[in-house]
Fold each of these.
Amino acid sequence: MSSPSSSIGDSGKLVGTVAGPGDGPNEFFIVTPDEQAVKTGEFITYSVTVESEPQDVIARVTNREQARGLPETFMADPNVAPETVAGTLGVPTEDIDLYRLEATVIGFYDTQMQTFANPRQLPQPGTRLRTAPDKMLEAVLPNLGVDEADARTTRGEVDLSSVDVTQRDGLAHMGWLLNRETGAVDVHVPIDEFAATHLAILASTGSGKSYTAGVLMEEMMMPDVRASLLVFDPHGEYDTLAEMRGEETFRDDSGYQPEVEYFDPDNLQIRISELSIGDVMSILDNPSDRMQERLDGGWRAMQQRESRTWGIDDLLAEMYQQYGEDDSSVGALEWRLRRSIQRNDLFTTDVNVPLEELVAPGRCTVLQMDTLSRRDQQMIATVLLRRLYQARLAAVRGRGDDPNFDGEIIDFPLFSLFEEGHRFAPATGEAPSLSIMRTITSEGRKFGFGLGIISQRPSKIDQDVLSQCGTQVTMKIQNPTDQDAIKNSVEAAGEDVLRELPGLTPGQAVVSGDSMNTPVLIQVRRRHTQHGADSIPATQEWRTAHQQRRDQPSRSESADMGGGESTGEQNLLGGE
Amino acid sequence: MTNTSQTNQSDTQTDHITDCLAIGSIVSSNSHMDYTVEIFNETDREQAPGPADCGFGQPVLIQKTVQDTEYVIMGVIYDTHLVDPDQGRSGPRLAQGDQKQFTPGYVEERTKLAGVALLGTAVVTADGTIENPSHQMPRWTLDVEDIVERCPDGVTRAFHTGENGGILIAYMERLLDLAGSLGAEVMLALLDRLRGSFPADEHQRVLDVIEKDVRWQSSVDRGVMR
């Protein structure tokens, strides 16, 4: 057991008195005279003795209702203040309101277990409650692993409020507790935790999920983290991250500054030999069983070859050789393969971006895929993830020491963010990327490969993938189907978290899961870089465009200004 | 409201407590707050109160001097009873139908009794008006044969005016409780009077809210509303 933290007893504002046990085994009721002091979601604390040690137990206020106040009939006429009616009837109006709060015990922070322990003991009726001190909450709410040594003061006492979380490395400052004043209780999320056990950012459109992702990415590029980030950006929303390169905040004395690399479809091509037979099947139009059998045979033969730069022509030649020149299934495959792969610029025979160019520590790589079709985006994700995963697998298994190993190796952990995550791991419908995403979310922890799924439609994300995301940042979600999806697949999402979701405003989020000791409601901090995903201001752009058209002389006139010979085209446009 | 005489008519508007119409005297009490008043008839007083002077919901006052300070104790008629000692007597009568003048006794003993609930007190000023109205329970008891007078509207108004000029009806809960089944009715009768005394819009709105509350509460009690 941890030692008593004696200094907390008198700090924090006195807010109320325990009235008695509540409905559930961990719930109790508090009576408070003050309307403003305690909001729903506030953390309060009381002292109990656990194994003869006094412990500060933290509880969360989950509900509040008025226990005493003026009757509703006094409010019958909006023009007459209820206090006026009360004054007329001689009813006292000063300090008569009483509120009854319901609170749920979270537990006391056990410095040995480094998380909350439930004392299984409700406070006695009459126990006085205080708001939990800001500094203590900063130390114990996120899963920072604060232990007894961290909490020991210079005088030798154990005081959780004495822990300075800003001195610890590898934390992402996401924002501050919503119930307290701005910046009073900063929430620092341990990056190690969500980089290993995956992250989900779930929010409806316009509630700030890309913004929150931007905050996390900024934190991961800080000098004390220097992550290797790979962002799949189907909308081209993250072009402002490049500002990190110049920002003072991201630099340190050693000369570090983050790299931000953008890859567009031109340098995102996929070598055909990297595709698996399953990938090829998924992009062909309804291949028959016989075609699949033929393709399987041909593909296997090609993969046996030394060369990795073969193309569709080589594959077809191989198949014709195996099954005969007049095989009708190969003939049908030829048409399909040429249409789906050979004529698609995405696939190539030789170019292959080396992984070491793509990812590196202290580098944020953004794959801008906004011009690609959904299927091509999925295909890029599939092939890249598979290569990266195998490279991490090889590194962890020590293949680099094997002189015969000719595959790729990445000897540092990776974190990959997926904007529009439901596109890459959809709950319904085929997606070649689903299988590798399931593999990484279930196995990636062991190989240092973390995924971050960002989506506005949790119900459309594959449940296996979503349920493996250990840390969740959930923002405003009103759609009941999506709320159900969160309830069903997110373990840490208790009823009290779900109840908050419809009422959140943009920029407010619930952070829950492995990175937190208990779910908290936060206000996301401001980004250091600009936000790039704003909607286009349509009316303003229409006005400007219209004005420009009126101001500009017509195209034929401007052509004539040159005084040269007019062409037939200009004649057609109304010139001379 | 129709009054029996011209003098009474002018009295109803005054805010002075002098020359109020005496309507009866106290004969007994049911509690510290609840007194029974025998209404004067023609044999008691030259100017006996008419039906409108001692009707249901009529504010009344009793003048009382306590330790050299003159007070009025305010009350309201919340109930009435008729008493006829002859009732049930079927024996021989002294009088014949055409010999009224020989009729002694009980015919004249028929009386009207009124229940008066106390509302509060106020101090009488030198010029006969009242000040410092208090809607607390009066601490002193009244005496048998104390004269109960009809309270003029001006005095009623003064009694119901709070410190900041607002309406004060702080006795309401006590009155509703004491008057029992007639509580809502007597309260509504009082509210109706106050409407006349406080014509300002803001006061009317407050009275609206209170009246609705009283009506709603009594309707709920009677089970016609929920």
Note: Strands of chain B lie at 22-31, 34-39, 59-66, 69-83, 111-124, 130-134, 147-150.
Amino acid sequence: MKTWLWHHVDALRTTLARLLRTPVATLLNVSVIGVALALPVGLYVAVVNLQGLTRSLGSDPQLSVFLALDAGSADAKRIAARLQQHPTVREARYVPRDEALKELKSSTGLADVVDSLPANPLPDAFVVTPRDTTPAALEKLRDEVRGWPKVTHVQLDAEWARRLEAGLRAALLAVSLLATVFAFALVAVTFNTIRLQILTRREEIEVSKLIGATDSFIRRPFLYYGALQGLAGGLAAWAIIAAGIYILNGALADLSRLYAAQIELRHLSPEDSGSLLAFSAALGWFGSWLSVNRHLAAIEPR
Amino acid sequence: MISFSRVTKRYPGGLEALRGVTLTIDAGEMVFVTGPSGAGKSTALKLMAAIERPTTGSVVVSGQNVGALRPRAVPFLRRKLGLIFQDQKLLFDRSAFDNVMLPLAVTGFERREAARRVRAALDKVGLLAKEKVHPVRLSGGEQQRLAIARAIVHRPAILLADEPTGNLDAAYAAGIGELFRSFNQVGVTVVIATHDASFAARMKPRMIVLKEGRVAAA
């Protein structure tokens, strides 16, 4: 057990030394892998951020029911009662026109504009949360309420958010396809690096075999090399995306000040970061495993 | 310790290096395998180290039938052997110390004990002062002694040397011969293949003479 552990520690140390002995080649390989991984992962980050945005805007579908401007409080009460008794309505929240104006003033940067208005242009409204959120049920409810007296307009909220989310699901699929392609690239890069390594270490491998090294002993540093290189590439991809987000957030800060909203890109979650690193290390390991199995058998002492 | 029984080795292309060789080398013996170039000396040593496999017949080394050895078992046979080659097969990207460390590294020897043994082996061949030197900067004779240090550092039961004095002058060869004798005196079975007749004659060991792949005298 101790010997086994020692073998691994030793292999890891030799491998690190090898990586550091050729810093330029190592840096180039790591950059290639980093850039290749940053592309699909960057897209993934973009999609996840957009998804977060649509969620925060509420993808729970709601109906906004706007009353006529001349509707009085009696009309509003009557409609409220009708909505609350409706079998498919779970909740109906009354938004009086004055409150709506106040909200508009405080939540957007439009206080000056609102103040300059001669009269409140907003109607009374209800925000209706239906029991059944299937598109067909929503449309049926919308068409029904639209026909009521003193109701001028019924808006299906969050429909665009749902559409966007469906689009984002398709985008996620595209990201995984892209990730697959670049995973192949990572394996290929590692395969080739290890092939060159084996060729330059031909003598060492031959001598090791002659003095009684097992195949796994010879294979180990190459596998470590591939895994470490993959891991470093994963870290590089992570750093590239972190830098990209940092720069974009700087630009977005201005934008969010203008829109009085909190718009900020978020980096990969710790879980996703962990998966990225584990995935890139595993692919590097796999690439070198393929390469070692293919090329090591050819070196036998004669 | 080592026994050949009707061993024939035919290389691809039809060359027959050994033809029905039968011989036995006992534990603790020191044996010279001699004969002209192409007589099959190197092939005989390669068969003992499982570098080659017999075409027919059987080669048994320390109780193991080399011809029937699974590839996975080969490294463990080789750990019982010390191999010395005419071209030394030293690694030029590391120091003398690290070259000698190699056989202990592959078995996962404890670091401090390994370093102690490496220095003992270097001391034995008279290279202790040059442990940090890279093989490139050693003379031919020193390189050969470094190769010997690497072959004995893991204290093998059998030492196999192929033309160990190949490119060395007579005085140097005699020194290396004495080195082999000292290993033999502590119980190591030593097999040396050489075409250097004067070197062999001086040592007065048991001789196995090969000629055209057959045992001419044993």
Note: Residues 146 and 154 of chain A are 6 Å apart (CA to CA).
